[in-house]
Amino acid sequence: MESESPFGEFVDSVSGNIIGQEDTEAKLDVGECELPLIDLSHLNLGNPENEECKRKICEASAEWGFFQIVNHGVCQEIFSRIHREQVELFRQPLQEKTNEKLLNLSSGCYQWERQTAATWKQFGWSEAFHIPVTTVSQLNELEDIRSSLEGFAMKATDLAQQIAEILAENLGCESTFFSENCLPSSCYIRMNKYPACPVSSKVFGLIPHTDSDFLTVLHQDQVGGLQLLKDGKWIRVKPNPDVLVINIGDLFQAWSNGVYKSVEHRVVANHENERFSLAYFSCPSHDTVIESCSSEPSIYRKFSFREYRQQVQEDVKTTGDKVGLSRFLNQA
């Protein structure tokens, strides 16, 4: 029977060439938290509820870089349908998943983490389908997942725009920047699977990183594994399939001149259970210029999204890790 996952073959063939190390710190005891929880329905109320809701969004973005939302407008049935289809999709043989005919998308849409890892710590035990929002309607074979993803993408786009406008207005900046630059043609969805991992003490499901976008909208199942760095300590995020998790990306940190925080996070590999998640990434076009909207001296120099992505890719290739915004600090 053909394998559905690249990981077993990877471990068997190259694990001897990967630099050995002690168990990852992910297995050390870390605290657990419930992220700030915000009820978006309050935005539809009058003052003071409306303004209080906006304040909580801005406060969480500055202090945590992460928060959860309820009453977000995506019904649980959509997530249930997507989950069922994700399970079926990822169970396809590896040869099928890498075949562009499976979803009528480019062959590069299926990816698995760090095939070129030099250390266990650089290897992520996860696989994913990266789907540009404008190509969701092209998905074939799986009609149910196409309609469900279209519903999710539409709502996630609206949520990202709404939250971005609130954050921009709090800074006294032009809120139309996001509706003009973060269009469906540059945003994408990622369906993730984290298979049960026989070497879970040595690898991450997803290595520590920050997101190279403006905002991420995430739905995760009940298995858990997401951790974030808060005040120098790793904290487990208690899973809740009824909420959406919002996190600030690198571009928003630069655009807000450091007011909103793009926080390092990771996913821990699980020895017994597979985990699924669904993420929407709000990104601008490659030519969009990112610069501080603040009148204060800028922390970061001006750069295009294309330049940022190229620098991240180059750093990963040469160092094994993403360096990120520290490459773009303003030297003036």
Describe the protein.
The protein is of the alpha+beta class and about 325 residues long. A hairpin with a 2-residue loop joins strand 9 and strand 10. The chain is about 30% helix and about 20% strand. The mean pLDDT is about 90. It has 8 helices and 15 strands. The N and C termini lie far apart (about 60 Å). It has an 8-stranded mixed β-sheet with strand order 2-3-11-8-13-6-5-4. It has a 5-stranded mixed β-sheet with strand order 1-10-9-12-7, with no helix packed on it. The radius of gyration is 20 Å and the shape is globular.
Low-confidence stretches: none
| Distance between the first and last residues' Cα | 60 Å
The major pleated sheet works out as: 8 strands, mixed
**Could you estimate the helical fraction of the residues in percent?**
25-40%
Rounded mean pLDDT is 89
Instruction: Provide the β-strand percentage band.
Output: 15-25%
Any idea what the shape is?
A: globular
Taking strands numbered 1, 2, ... along the chain, how are they ordered across the largest sheet?
A: 2-3-11-8-13-6-5-4
Which series of helices and strands comes N to C? Answer: HEEHEHHEEHHEEEEEEHEEEEH
By DSSP (H or I, 4+ residues per run), the number of helices equals 8
Give the number of DSSP strands.
Answer: 15
By helix and strand content, what is the structural category? alpha+beta
Radius of gyration: 20 Å
